[in-house]
Write a structure and sequence with these properties.
By secondary structure, this protein is an alpha+beta fold. Helix content is 20%, strand content 25%. It is globular.
């Protein structure tokens, strides 16, 4: 498998090796959680990292959500930074990524049309369609990380891709894939957490998503206006925040009380 990965990569994207430089700059993040009328959260058009260090200053429900997400967010931010700073994506890069982030399902190299050239592991349990990764996220650049999610009979799979560039053109993609449920060991009280990507429930905790107040929200409209909030009232209320990953919004929520 190691030899195959190297040979295919060299044949698939030799030209891009001449322009990919090791030690690229890492992410710039701008985000905060502040106590105002609710959860305040801002982001720039790059993958973002939540600042959860002041969770104790928030109202109870928001503080609880911040604390539960802290270690999970560190993992996602670490993956983003590693992909951004990576030099030429090759077998060693794939091995390093899988060692550092054991919750990943695998690593795949695609050509510029999203066809698979090589993958680790070579046989993947989930059959994925990578073509949505060809779309550049809104308000983003061709070089920026991009992500999509696909539901499968074995559960949803998130694909986070770093474009392989030749001048201004993406001639391939280095893709890390994972199931959100693999991140749950990094979340406190995961049974109370609900996570959703566009059109797909990633995790609903100890309940069915349709039974939560989140199911009644129009997320296409809501995320165009807000990046945090509360759904429902009383004992069923949930606080939520959106965390962007490769331009894709992940809505994560937990009970307000």
């Amino acid at each position: 498998m190691r030899v195959f990965f190297r040979l295919v990569f060299k044949c698939a994207v030799p030209a891009c090796m001449l322009v990919l430089l090791p030690g690229c700059s890492t992410l710039t993040e701008t985000s905060a959680w502040k106590k105002t009328s609710g959860l305040y959260y801002t982001y720039v058009n790059r993958p973002v990292k939540l600042d959860l260090t002041s969770a104790e200053a928030l109202p109870e429900g928001e503080s609880r959500l911040a604390s539960r997400l802290m270690a999970l967010d560190w993992q996602l931010t670490g993956l983003e930074r590693t992909l951004e700073a990576m030099g030429v994506p090759d077998q060693n890069a794939a091995d390093m990524l899988l060692r550092r982030f054991p919750w990943l399902s695998g690593v795949t190299i695609l050509d510029g049309d999203a066809n698979v050239f090589a993958a680790v592991p070579s046989i993947q349990l989930k059959q994925l369609d990578y073509t949505p990764l060809l779309a550049v996220p809104p308000k983003s650049s061709t070089r920026a990380l991009r992500a999509c999610v696909q539901d499968t009979p074995l559960g949803p799979e998130i694909m986070l891709a770093r474009p392989i560039m030749r001048e201004a053109e993406a001639v391939g993609f280095f893709v890390a894939t994972f199931d959100f449920r693999s991140l749950l060991p990094y979340a406190d009280a995961s049974g109370d957490i609900v996570a959703r990507a566009p059109g797909v429930t990633l995790w609903s905790g100890d309940r069915m998503y349709d039974e939560t107040p989140l199911a009644g929200e129009d997320w296409d409209v809501l995320l165009g206006e807000r990046s945090f909030g509360q759904a429902g009232e009383g004992d069923d209320a949930m606080v939520w925040v959106v965390r962007y990953l490769g331009g894709m919004p992940l809505v994560i929520a937990s009970p307000a009380r």
